[in-house]
Design brief:
The protein has about 150 residues and is mainly alpha-helical. It has one domain (about 5-150). About 60% of the residues lie in helices and about 5% in strands. One calcium ion binds near residues 40 and 49.
Amino acid sequence: MTTRELLAATLAAAVMLPSAGMAAPDQVRAVVIFMAADRNGDAVVDRAEADGFRAVIFDAIDTNKDSRVSPQEVGVLLVPGKENADAKEQEKIVKKREELLAKLGLAKPEGVPKDEYLDRSGALFAAADADKTGTVDPAEFAVIVEAYGALLPK
Ligand SMILES: [Ca+2]
Ligand SMILES: [Ca+2]
């Protein structure tokens, strides 16, 4: 799985926010993302791994490498453009992007800088680490993927 594919999967998971009766493919996706984040393979994600993972995701989103992720950069990942889209279709795509960006907290026109995206305070990690062990296990991670996927990515 390439970073780009992983990113698309993560974002997709993020926008599916807490849905009742998570389908099997989503659970598989959560596991795949977990395995990618768990660099040393000890079956838990520690803070350094979580930060590293977010940095990888950030770099993949930041296609123009200006150290900010703009609504445009995220938008095309969330809702790919269509070739030969008529005005009405184009409007739909734009609307859908705006909706999802707002949901993910990435709608700021000036973009989100890397330090903000990386969550230096570790608030997201702390929230994910429900049992306060300092590590995130697959069950805790699944909650993040389900609820905050983009914040992993943010
Ligand atoms: Ca680990
Ligand atoms: Ca950028």
